């Protein structure tokens, strides 16, 4: 993926098993927990490109959230803040080679940011 591409979509759910059954049956998504990400089943669309996760719903996460790949979360957050965004979640580590954060755009939309790679080889 390149800078600016949507790389991941999280869907908030209250019942992981029920949600996995619903989305796999409805759209043919492959849904499975990955090692190191237990309790966060990942989904992949039949095109083998689109994907994301089923994440626990909570007061701060009630609607699906898209993640955009960026070269630098720090630089993107600074630029977003200059343009009127706020930070909902500071940069956090996913793995030793990847990070995420969430900004709120001037219209109140939550947009996830993703930097790095989750591939074990670091590529």
From TrEMBL:
Listed PROSITE patterns: VOC
Domain VOC: 5-116
Residues annotated as transmembrane: none
A UniProt-annotated Pfam family: Glyoxalase_6
Gene3D superfamilies: 2,3-Dihydroxybiphenyl 1,2-Dioxygenase, domain 1
InterPro entries in UniProt: Anthracycline_SecMetBiosynth, Glyas_Bleomycin-R_OHBP_Dase, Glyoxalase_6, VOC_core
Classification via PANTHER family: GLYOXALASE-RELATED (PTHR33993)
Protein name: VOC domain-containing protein
Source organism of the structure: Microbacterium awajiense
